[in-house]
Amino acid sequence: MKCSEFLQELTNYLDGVLDDKTKAELENHLSWCHNCYVVCDTTKKTIEIYRDSQLYELPEDLRSRLRSAIMQKCQQHKKRGPQSV
Amino acid sequence: MGAIQNKVTAPPSEELALVQAAKRGDDSAFEELVRRYDRNVFRIAQHITQNREDAEDVVQEAFLKAYGNLAQFQEQSKFYTWLVRIAVNEALMKLRRRKPERTVSLDEDIKTEDDSLPREIADWSPNPEQQYTQAELREILSKTIQGLPPGFRTVFVLRDVEGLSTEETAAALELSVPAVKSRLLRARLQLRDRLGKYFQRGARGNGKNSDATSGDGNQ
Question: What is the CATH number of the domain that holds B77?
């Protein structure tokens, strides 16, 4: 397996959706190719950092303000009838 | 090196019961759906628009549209996927309005040649995120993802931040599964490449092993 082939399968590998044979080939490649090992490891880390980052959390006060506004507009919509959105 | 774990979403039957109650006019059921997904919609919207006021508008507009069109929701897909689709469209519209000089589309022609082949292969420090304060880290992550084309960051945020499956992401964005996979791969590799600047060994004066790129493959 070449590095470019490894890279093509990287997303499937990280998502755990490869068949056993391809997975074994990839892991064999990883066992001797340091560059691909680093790319794979740091890509996985990238995903984990973003997933765990709590970037753009909705603050509670803003959250309840938005929810009230939404429900209020829904009520108005209901009164006006179904053509108003 | 194992596969990454996805977030678990609510059981579909519970969601469906709420949707059906909301369709019958039960607004408290709809409010429960808002409570359930408002954080996700806000996060997705801010990732796409990169602007907080726009994200707030998108949350309101998306839920209001969902409310107004609930009768048309066929219940063949998950409500959440349907809602995400509405929210993504609203967010892209905001982005187009804000940046009219640039075409903003999920179908924009993205170079398919080796544009995202890793350029930097230097290893990262162990727990690189801990070298920064929470605020610094958020700044780094936000700046880094802003640099991706909207079509890439949208796929990344749905798949990797929100934990939608590839099929759900494809349905929400009206893209094919191969298109989602190819964008996701390139988004992940580009983010990895850009984050390397901050997270490589020695990137923040930790002084340890700054020459650690000469590995021997025996990890």
Answer: 1.10.1740.10
